[in-house]
Amino acid sequence: MRGRHKSWAKPFLESHPELVVEKVFPEDPFYTHAPLYLEIGIGKGDFILGFSALDPNGHFLGLERDVSIMGMAAKKIVEAERNNVRLCAEDFDDLYEGLASLKFDVIFLNFSDPWPKKRHEKRRLTFAPRLQKIADLLKEGGELRIKTDNDILYPFTLEQIELLKGMKIMENEADYAFDETKDCMSEYERNFRAKGQPIHRIVLKKE
Ligand SMILES: C[S@@+](CC[C@H](N)C(=O)[O-])C[C@H]1O[C@@H](n2cnc3c(N)ncnc32)[C@H](O)[C@@H]1O
User: Fold this and answer.
1) Interval 144-152 mean pLDDT
2) Tens digit of pLDDT for each residue in 51-106?
3) In the chain, N or C: fewer CB atoms in 10 Å?
4) What is the mean predicted confidence (pLDDT) over 148-155?
5) Dist. CA 110 → ligand 1 center (Å)
6) Residue 193 per-residue DSSP state
7) Atom of ligand 1 at shortest distance to CA of 90?
8) Among 159, 166, 158, which residue's Cα sits nearest to residue 133?
């Protein structure tokens, strides 16, 4: 997702310390709540906004490395007066050390950048060494839920999952039927569905 640079975004994020954190401090009582959710690459925030209403008892951490895009997500969450969300405008790879002592119930990867060129496959969020780090952030019995429209990223992700330790595939649907009582749509999902594109979904469980 590439958007125009928004000069208001950084000051806006800085003016909402109750929502936007620069670093994740595991001792913050926010992260002791259950269920605790993590979304990596929240984009413009529609999914985290929707899911934090669907499960108002859940606590949500959203990461987005693009400050301008994070600004747009943060604006929606502030306007909705959601108090069960924290946002961090960092790249997962840079934040990982700080996250490593937390354990999440569910982690979402929604329409992650596909990096379609073979020579860029190590950049994909589902590249096995990175996917293992993501899986390591789950509690026992926790779930990693992955959605994509992309016909390169989907089979690649299934191959990478074979290399993971301690994760079992619970669901694998090439044409996932959306259920609004259990799930929410991101901006990308809404756009792809409007064009009639099938959505692929994989759910993994930590054993
Ligand atoms: C294709 S967009 C999808 C956005 C949103 N999840 C959706 O479905 O509408 C992927 C987003 O993930 C962000 N992203 C990619 N890699 C990331 C990383 N390593 N850490 C944090 N954010 C990342 C990008 O900046 C981009 O906004």
Assistant:
1) 98
2) 999 999 999 999 999 999 999 999 999 999 999 999 999 999 999 999 999 999 99
3) C
4) 98
5) 8
6) H
7) 21
8) 166
* Ligand 1 atom with the shortest distance to the CA of 114: 1
Q: Is the pLDDT of residue 2 over 80?
A: no
Catalytic residue numbers? 113
User: Please, what are the domains in the chain?
Assistant: 29-206 (3.40.50.150)
Torsion of CA 157, 62, 60, 24, to 10 degrees: 110
Helices H / strands E in the chain, number of each: 7, 7
* Dihedral sign of CA atoms 111, 79, 107, 196 in order: negative
Alpha helices in 2-127 (DSSP H): 9-14, 46-54, 67-79, 92-99
β-strands 200-206, 167-173: how paired? antiparallel
Q: How far is the CA of 75 from the centre of ligand 1 (A)?
A: 17
Q: For 182-197, what is the mean pLDDT?
A: 98
3 Cα: distance to centroid of ligand 1 (angstroms):
12
Report whether residue 41 contacts ligand 1, using a CB cutoff of 6 Å. yes
Q: What is the pTM of this model?
A: 0.98
CB atoms near residue 50 (< 10 Å): 15
